[in-house]
Input
Amino acid sequence: MKEMKFYGTALPGLEIEPYSGKLIVIEGTDGVGRSTHVALLRTWLESGGHGVLDTGMTRSVLAGRGIKNAREGHTLGRLTMQLYYATDFADRLENQMLPALRAGFVVLTDRYIYSAIARAVVRGADPEWVRGIYGMALVPDAVFYLRVRSTEELAGRVLASGRGFDYWESGMDLGLGNDYYDSFIAYQKQLLREFDRMSGEYGFRVVDASRPVRRVAAELRRGVARIIEGDTVDEPGKESAKVGSPEKVKPASGPVLKEIAKEESSEKAKSA
Amino acid sequence: MISYGHHRYPGRLFVVEGTDGSGKSTQLALLYQWLKAEGYPVFFSEWNSSPLVKDTTRRAKRRRLFTPTTFSLLHATDFADRTERNIIPPLKAGAIVLADRYIYTAFARDVARGCDRAWVREVYKFAVKPTVAFFFRAPLDVAIDRIASSRPSLKYYEAGMDMDWSGDEEESFKMFQGKILDEYDHMVGEFSLTQIDATQSIRVQQRQMREIVGRYLKEKLKEKVVLTK
Output
């Protein structure tokens, strides 16, 4: 069990009580493979018997559709966009993430407040203002920041995915370049800079995402296993209290770490 | 980002505030007619008017999806759109912008719902500071009587039913309006709101309003832009 801690003022009407779940954030710029890794982690955690909720930007019941429609029309002003995203975030925090955490789920979130802050700051918003709005956010148990070495690499990934360049992911609203490619590179560079700046402030665990998916996935699993096991190591006596929640059979414990280590060493042997 | 109080535009921004039933919209409509007749370029901006957010708000109200935080943030989103589209551009062009309800409505209503005072003010930091913000103050019983006679039934959020203060709609509405009025009273000093006694006759109130607005008008505002309808 862990006390709820918020970056600023907690949500009004919220009962601040200890929770038994884990809030794990996967952050990074567009195209680093966040959604792939969230999906891999989910499967892995579920096979280990953990209840998992995964969520991400614009997936709220309240504001998701409205944001998507507004994005389609390219009609969002800068301030309006930031606040629409904040609405979406608050709805998911209150109605998805917090209830799941109380029920002992592992919550995997594809992006958290950091992407929202980076996007807003790059668009000229006052950094203090955005941080103030997101003061309602729960401090997560861990933030894994998937980082690539260059924006050119990101562009390559976007192309390889077959989706091609998106208006907003390319920051076309900012007028940074003459075409989607130039704009994408310039925009993602600025985002990368903001992420790097936040890394120390928010204690990101930096994961080198330029490596093959398998290697990145193994590192993430090792990191997540440590977060989940942290509980059982710290509070061995509390084990019996968890029997009540059927989703949480037994946390991926010691053997999981060994398994990953084995997998990694065999991988090393292969590449050697 | 330019924050509250730091905007410098050639236009003028006059806003009206007050509880439901205070008569503020009537007063603003009369002011609009007068300014137009005097030949000033006037632009009217209403609360909850953004087409981008309208559908989301309507659906959320119908399905009762709001919490105090999301209620506050979605209205801030709407207000941001209104600021970016309907308030800043006409002010830059030198027009007179009239706003029926402004950030103080959010401050009063959201804090009455339990949102943190400082947080709500921070969210709206981007707003343009009005030239004059009128607060039409009507005692609670007067405002409630006016509402009761003009509306057959109260809406869920309007009555504050989401807060579970009372199972009775009318009772809940009274409690909600009382809390809102307390917040307004709190803001008169904080934001230098210009208070108008809303129990006076409509004509007297309008005369006071025109006298105050007149101090901020200059002949050259008329030449600045021509708004044609």
